[in-house]
Amino acid sequence: MTAALAHRPAAPSPITGGDRLYAIARWLLLIIIFVLATVVYQVALLPPTAGERFGQIFWAYVFFALLGQVLVLLPQTQRLVPWSYVCDLLWLAALAYVGPGAPLSYVALFLLPLIAGALRLQRVAVLGLSIFAVALSQALLFKPHISTDVLAFASQAIMLGMLPWLVNLLSEQWTVDNRQRVLAAQEQSAAALKHAETYRDRMRALYEVALSLNTTGNAADVLETTLHECRRFLPCHEGAIVLPTGAPDQVQVVAGRHLQPNEIGATFMVSNGTLGAVLRGANGGVLHNAHTDPEFARLPSIRERRTVLILPLRSARRTFGLVLFGSDEAQLTVEQMDMATTLVSYGLVALQNAQLIAELRAERENLLAREEEVRKQLNRDLHDGPAQSLAAITMTLGFIKRLYAKEPARVVPELDKLAAMAQRANHDVRTLLFELRPLVLETQGLMPTLRQYLERFEQNGTGPQVVLEGDDEIGPLTKRVQGTLFNIVQESTNNALKHAEAQHIWIKIAKKADELMLTIQDDGKGFDLQAVKAAYDQRGSFGLLSLEERARLVGGHAELLSAPGAGTTVRVVVPLDP
Fold first, then answer.
1. Least confident residue range of 10-14, 31-35, 483-487
2. Of 480, 485, 481, 484, which is closest to residue 468 (Cα–Cα)?
């Protein structure tokens, strides 16, 4: 019997709301019995009379209810709660047997402990409790001095036996449904929590990489942080960043995670393999047969992995390098690859920023060096031209002063010579001013400026013949582009006059579609272009070899061609204004 009345395995914890509610219901049951006895059957229960068994049993039941109200608050007595349903049935059966009226009116009260037990006990215990209630109801048939309604007792017995069973079945089904709903809610909550944690980790990773990008201009530090944060989301063991070295088809491992010591800094060649294809513009992705690709021979840590993720550091169709991850997973999810691509894009920004900073620093150094070169050139031009003329004029004036005192007849010819010197000095100064910034370029444009510039060489009557070819209508050009082209003509022409020993210099300007082509060509002795480039790297000269940089600054490009005995050609192409 004890085993039959045991709690369910998933019963609530001690001092549950259900037990308290049943204790309150028991008091309502006692109130109903009290009202039924005193009002309907006129039984005096107050004050308690010792002579009547009904009153004694009722007040004993009241004492039991009071005791149960206290015990339900104690966790140690919870295992006795199922037995309280048996006691309630016994008390109700006793009141029905000795009480006034028909027993059926008391038997209906059996439903309260039966339903409470059906909601609390296991199915076998509920069956035993129902059988016990049916037996008690049938025992009331033997109450003396009453008319026996066998059919009514039988129907009540059926109700007492079936109703708790049905309530127990519905309760268990409701409990199972609730448990399933709770489990589903817990799974949804766990999934939502996992999603939130993943989102938090993503944001943290993005923040770390962005912080590294903002706090340091070192691309290597940002790339290291990118590798570290990518491992939060990718089930990868190793990571590597591979960048071109500048030599044809050669790359170098500049950063890595969990690589062997000899892999960091290793250089190797890429050609027709997967890495070479991605560097040349192919899309990255997942590679499953890296161990068969010879380009991974210098990266054994990654090569032996089951899966290799290749992400290009690419912007505007230019690939700056590759990011590699090695994993033993059969496949990576789209979400993982998207997140890795997002983080890698920060590394790309770092590379672009580092490159831009390097270019700006180099440009600054070039500008400062070019300014110094211009100062030196201006100093040489002033020393060799106007300064020499002014010195000669000063000496001639002194000579004329002394000559006027001794031989006045020779003064006039000497003054004529002095006037020629002054005109030459004036011509030199105007030429320098014209070369620095010709005003006609601001007002009339490039072609009239070039004509006036070249006329000065014709006036000298010595040197090579300079020929200008081109129409005045060369298309829309900004003042900056016109000034750059004029400086390129100056530089090229001066070099031809000083070094080429040429007989002719041709300057051609032609419009082609939306571009303008400037060509300066001479028939001089030419020079070894590779040797000059080597000297340029050593001396830092800013002569003809700076033309390409000047053209690039205005959105164009330049080409220098020369060979010993073949003359020199400078070709510049710049875009026209839309």
1. 10-14
2. 485
